Amino acid sequence: MTTYYYKVAGFLFSVCLPADMDAETLLPSFRPFRIAGQEEKERQLFCFAVLMPDEMPEEEQKRLLEETDNDMGHLNLFVTAGGYEVELTGGSCTHRMVANADFSSLKACLQREDRNVGQALSSLLRIAFAQSILGHDAVSIHAAAVYRGGEAYLFMGTSGTGKSTHASLWIKHIPGTELLNDDNPTVRIVGGKAYAYGTPWSGKTACYKNLSFPIGGMVRLSQAPVNSFCRKEGAEAFIALYPGCSVIAEDKRLRNCLYDTLARLAGMVKVGTMDCLPDREAAIVCYQALIK
C-alpha cells in the first residue's frame, strides 16, 4: 500500500492505495492539494483508507436512507450498525464505500475494470469529505465561486438555475474576477471569519485551485424576467444558505453541526437572493449590491 497526503480547506487527510495504483493518474484533480507527507504539528482530522479487494463483505444490517443520481451514476446511501455505506453504480460497475459514523475513516471497494474508476473514487471521497468536516465549522456547498479584490463570492441555486453562467458573467464583465470553483467549494469559519476554499471537486469545469479568500458575499439565484437583489439577514439568511449544503439530514449530530455553522455564517457574511436574467446587468446589479 502507498499512502498519499492531501490538504483541502486546511483539512489533512490520507488516501491509501495498492502499490500498483498511482494517485497522480487516478486522482488528477487532487494534484494541487497534495503535500509531501503528514505534518506532525497538525491534527489529522480524517483518514481515507482506500482498499481495492476483489470483494467487500456485505453488511448484515443496513437501511436505505437515500437514493440520488449524480454525475457518476446512481447512488444509494445506507445506514449500518457501525455508520454508513454508499453504493455508486455507473454502467455495469458498482463501487462501494463503508464509513464510520463521523466519516473519519472509510474503506472503498472499487472495480478496477471500470475505466472511470478514478472519477468514482473522487466522487466517494467528496461525499465522505463533506460529512467529515461538518463538525469542524465547515461545510461543502453546491455553488459556483469567484474571487476578486481578495474576496470570494458564492452563487447558489438549484441545478439549472445558472450558477456557472452568473459566475462567467462576473468574469466577463467585472474586471479582475476569476473562477475559484464551479461546483463544490468549501466554506469554513476560522478565527471568527468566513473563508471560501477551492477543492478537487468542480463539476464539469476543470478548476482545481488550492486557494482561499474571505467571503465577500453569498447569493441564492433564481431565474426571473428582471434583475433584482434582496439582502437577507437572520433567519432569512439561514434559509437562503441551507439548500445545497451537503449533509445527511437524518443524522441529528451532523445536521446540528451544519445548523450551528450556518447560523454563524448568516451573522458574519453578506447574504442575499437574486432574481436574474443571464445578462451583463445581472452581474453588475449583484456586484454593486455586495460591495456596498
Describe the structure.
The strands form two sheets. The protein has a nine-stranded mixed beta sheet with strand order 3-1-2-4-9-8-7-6-5, covered by helices on one side. It starts with a strand and ends with a helix. The mean pLDDT is 90. The protein contains six helices and 18 strands. Helix 3 (163-173) crosses helix 6 (280-291). The chain has helices spanning 23-26, 117-132, 163-173, 234-241, 252-268, 280-291, and strands at residues 2-8, 11-17, 34-35, 47-49, 62-70, 73-80, 83-90, 93-100, 105-109, 138-140, 143-148, 151-156, 178-181, 186-190, 193-197, 212-223, 228-232, 271-276. A hairpin with a 2-residue loop joins strand 5 (62-70) and strand 6 (73-80). It has two domains: 2-132, no CATH class; 138-291, Phosphoenolpyruvate Carboxykinase, domain 3 (Alpha-Beta Complex). It is of the alpha+beta class and 292 residues long. Helix content is 23%, strand content 37%. It is globular and about 55 Å long.
Brief write-up:
With 292 residues, the chain is of the alpha+beta class. It contains 6 helices and 18 strands.
Instruction: Provide the β-strand percentage band.
Output: 35-45%
Look at the helices and sheets and give the structural class. Answer: alpha+beta
Rg, please?
Answer: 19 Å
- Helix count, per DSSP? 6
Q: What topology emerges from the helices and strands here?
A:
Blueprint: E1 2-8, E2 11-17, H1 23-26, E3 34-35, E4 47-49, E5 62-70, E6 73-80, E7 83-90, E8 93-100, E9 105-109, H2 117-132, E10 138-140, E11 143-148, E12 151-156, H3 163-173, E13 178-181, E14 186-190, E15 193-197, E16 212-223, E17 228-232, H4 234-241, H5 252-268, E18 271-276, H6 280-291
Parallel strand pairs: 2-4, 4-9, 12-16, 16-18
Antiparallel strand pairs: 1-2, 1-3, 5-6, 6-7, 7-8, 8-9, 10-14, 11-12, 11-13, 14-15, 15-16, 17-18
Helix pairs in contact: 3-6, 4-5
